[in-house]
Amino acid sequence: xxxxxxxxxxxxxxxxxxxxxxxxxxxxxxxxxxxxxxxxxxxxxxxxxxxxxxxxxxxxxxxxxxxxxxxxxxxxxxxxxxxxxxxxxxxxxxxxxxxxxxxxxxxxxxxxxxxxxxxxxxxxxxxxxxxxxxxxxxxxxxxxxxxxxxxxxxxxxxxxxxxxxxxxxxxxxxxxxxxxxxxxxxxxxxxxxxxxxxxxxxxxxxxxxxxxxxxxxxxxxxxxxxxxxxxxxxxxxxxxxxxxxxxxxxxxxxxxxxxxxxxxxxxxxxxxxxxxxxxxxxxxxxxxxxxxxxxxxxxxxxxxxxxxxxxxxxxxxxxxxxxxxxxxxxxxxxxxxxxxxxxxxxxxxxxxxxxxxxxxxxxxxxxxxxxxxxxxxx
Length: 378
Prior knowledge:
The protein has helices at about 50-55, 65-70, 70-75, 80-85, 95-100, 130-140, 155-175, 195-205, 225-235, 250-260, 270-275, 310, 315-325, 330-355, 355-375; strands at about 5-15, 15-25, 25-30, 35, 60, 90-95, 105-110, 115, 125, 145, 185-190, 210-215, 245, 265, 280, 285-290. The protein is of the alpha/beta class and about 375 residues long. It is globular. Helix 7 (about 155-175) packs parallel to helix 8 (about 195-205). The protein folds into two domains: about 5-265, Alpha-Beta Barrel (TIM Barrel); about 275-375, no CATH class. The strands form four sheets. Strands 4-14-13-12-11-10-6-5 form an eight-stranded parallel beta sheet.
C-alpha cells in the first residue's frame, strides 16, 4: 500500500518518543510536528508567509468545507490546493467525516455512506468513501484521510457499529484511491473502549497504510481516558509508520502525546483562542488579554517567547487593539499561539535527538504543576 514518494524514517528514540522524517512530494516533515488548521484553505488571519516565518511545515485543510465552497472541482481547475492558496509545503486534508457528524443537519447514516444537509444552504449532500477520496484527489493534498465515523465515545454499542463501518470504509478508500502522489492514512476508532481500540488499531495496521491516525479523542473524554487509549494504540500500531493524533493541540496534550509515540498533531485551538482574545503560554496557562489588568502592562505576552508578536508588542498594545476591534489583534495573537505550539514541538524533537526528552518532559510537567498550584492557591 505504501507509495514510493512516502517514507518514514525514525532518526532517534527515547523510550516511546520518536524524532523522525516523513518524506512527501512537497517537502520533508520533521516530526514531532504541529499543523495549523486552515479549514477554508486559509489559516484564519495569517498569510502563508507569516505561517512560514512561524515555522509551519504542514497545514490542514478541510474536505467537507472546501467541497461545499468553493467546490473541489473548481480548486482542481485552479491547479490544486497548493497553488490555489499559495502554499508550497505539505498539506493534509481530513476526510470530511467529523464535520458531517458534527455540523450537518438531518444526517442519515447507512453502511455505504452518509446523506446530509449542507450547513450553508440546506442542500442535500451525499458523502461516502469513494466521494471523499475523489474530493481529496481533486484538492491534491500530500496526506489524505480515509472516510471514518466519529461517534460518542461513551456509547459502546454504537461505537462498535461506527468502528466496523470505519474499517469497511477504510478498505473502500484504499480501492478508490488512484493518485500515487498522495499518502492515504487510515483512522483508528473505538471510543474509550480498550478492547474496541485494540481491535481497531490491529485492523487498520493490517491494511498497511503509509501512516495511521488516531481519531475520536478530545471529544469529551477525560485526560486519563485519552492517555489510556494512546498507551494501548501505541503498542499495536506499526513502529515504522507515522502516527497522527487528530484534533489535539494544548501544550500538555502535545507533550503527553509525544511521550506516547505520536508524531503529528493538528488543532483549531490556537487560532480560535486568538479570536477570543486569549494568549497561550508554553506551559499551558492562558492569558485573557482583554482584562483590565493588562491595560498598562508593558510586558510581551510571554517573556520567554521569540515570536514576532512578543519581540515587538506589549500586552497593553494588544489589549488596545482588542478593545478597538482592530483585526491586527487576532493576527498578533494567532502568530504567538501557533509559534508557542510549533516551538514546543521543535524543542521536543531536539530533546529526543539529544537523548534528553525524559528530562524535558519532567521539567514541563513540574513547571505546569507549579502553575496550576499557584492558580489554585490564589
